[in-house]
Amino acid sequence: MGIPNGPLGLDEIDQRMLEALARNARISLKELAEAAGLSSPSAAERLRRLEERGIISAFTVDIAPETIGYPLQAIVRIRPLPGQLHVVERIIQETPEFIECDKVTGDDCFIGRLVVRSMGELDGILDKITERAETNTSMIKATPVKRRLPPLSR
């Protein structure tokens, strides 16, 4: 085993495994072992430990929303009206077009990412929220940086 690096004790082998998984979560164990310079049983054990430690919480797919009928994406900043925080949070959670949402500090309480089929659909979703919150919406033109791993070493 390599020398732990950082607060989570990730060594270079762990980092190589995480980078390979970030590129392709469906990579075979054999390919993952090769990327890390390990045998398949050693790679499987390391993978298990990364999961147990909570470093890996899921294996997932990245779907391009436009390919399944959602050509538009928007970022919505939401500031609930007094006494409406929990109601607004529930509306967001129950609206499947919100594919991501963070509760934040600052002037807004939530920043959400929506996928929609049309501007009319966006208006319908926002109408449910604007009865209980102020919103500010920005349409996404492009995503120059997709979700990625944070730096794994210093």
Give a concise summary.
The protein is 36% helix and 19% strand.
Low-confidence spans: pLDDT under 50, at least 5 residues?
none
- Provide a count of the helices: 5
Q: In order across it, which strands form the biggest sheet? A: 2-3-1-4
Please tell me the total number of domains.
Answer: 2
User: Any guess at the CATH architecture of the largest domain?
Assistant: 2-Layer Sandwich
Rg, nearest Å: 20 Å
Output the structural class: alpha+beta
GO molecular function: sequence-specific DNA binding
Keywords: DNA-binding, Transcription, Transcription regulation
Protein name: Lrp/AsnC family transcriptional regulator, leucine-responsive regulatory protein
InterPro entries: ArsR-like_HTH, AsnC-type_HTH_dom, Dimeric_a/b-barrel, Tscrpt_reg_AsnC-like, Tscrpt_reg_AsnC/Lrp_C, WH-like_DNA-bd_sf, WH_DNA-bd_sf
